[in-house]
Q: What sequence folds into this?
């Protein structure tokens, strides 16, 4: 099975820092050293690993994604959320991080974000932590 | 070793829904709960996890990728397929999904696609399924 | 724990072929069949899996990323390296490859690159190799 995190996004496009929630999931899994797999089961939201020190970086990510995938193109999909689907494909729904000493082994400036592209909504993230030790 | 899926793409740019083939590979691996790793060994095709309910979403993905990586830029690579290489980098060649109860644990609207950017061609996908239970 | 690779990038934007270093890490891990997880702990560099036969492909990847994420946009982040953060998000920091017979199971034309977007700098890559056999 996997651990499920829940979050509520606040606007159409939003980046929610879930680093602390992922840290808690790793603690709940009781894994010392291993790999933490993070999966977003939505098609208009994804996961971003990037700087969590300066929030303007996240605003810049959102700005560039809007420029790459503008709302004004002649999309065929009738629901009006094609840009959100495509942004999710570009950032990805499935990422992993290493676990060391019971903690996420992130780089100095890295954090983990849920990237909302069609909010505000309730969103879930699925987490599975595989232990090096468990692999015999 | 890994399980190999084979498919034939139908046009230059094409998205082939391989969800059922991945499901069959998981059944062949005999894994109940675990992680399914999906790898595309090609450099002008990739893998996309996104909506498989409305095929116009896939057409919109292809349209935006053509706009981001147009055929008309002054590419240096002589074979004329640089846009295909770059699109593959943007969507990614390596993705994973969770497995639960012997089935792919996908979100409600998610499917798995081979994303062809330089077809039509014969393409392969490699699959490895790691069981939670196998990890002791 | 994980194996750490170190490299020195040569320019602002640079793609360094690390395929041989990854091969050596797999040999060091002593894994015959399994999965090699490759993680970049930086926020202005990423990892690219793509053609390593013709280096002009890599130049074309860099050219298109510059066009998608130009230096001239009105970025809010004060350090001037927002484009590098966003390019890293687009190519990804976390990738995996399969291992077969003690070697990376790459496609015929595939190589593994560190993608530098804010160099020249010293960079690290973290590697963890999980053996099929270890999983009982």
A:
């Amino acid at each position: 099975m996997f651990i499920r995190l829940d979050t509520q996004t606040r606007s159409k496009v939003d980046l929610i820092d879930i680093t602390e929630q992922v840290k808690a999931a790793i603690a709940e899994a009781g894994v010392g050293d291993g790999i933490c797999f993070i999966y977003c089961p939505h098609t208009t939201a994804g996961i971003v690993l990037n700087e969590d020190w300066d929030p303007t970086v996240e605003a810049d990510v959102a700005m560039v994604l809007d420029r790459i995938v503008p709302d004004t193109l002649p999309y065929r999909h009738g629901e009006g959320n094609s840009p959100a689907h495509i942004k999710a494909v570009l950032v990805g729904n499935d990422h992993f991080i290493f676990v060391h000493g019971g903690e996420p082994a992130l780089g100095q400036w890295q954090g983990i974000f849920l990237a909302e592209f069609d909010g505000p909504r309730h969103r879930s993230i699925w987490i599975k932590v595989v232990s090096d030790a468990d692999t015999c």
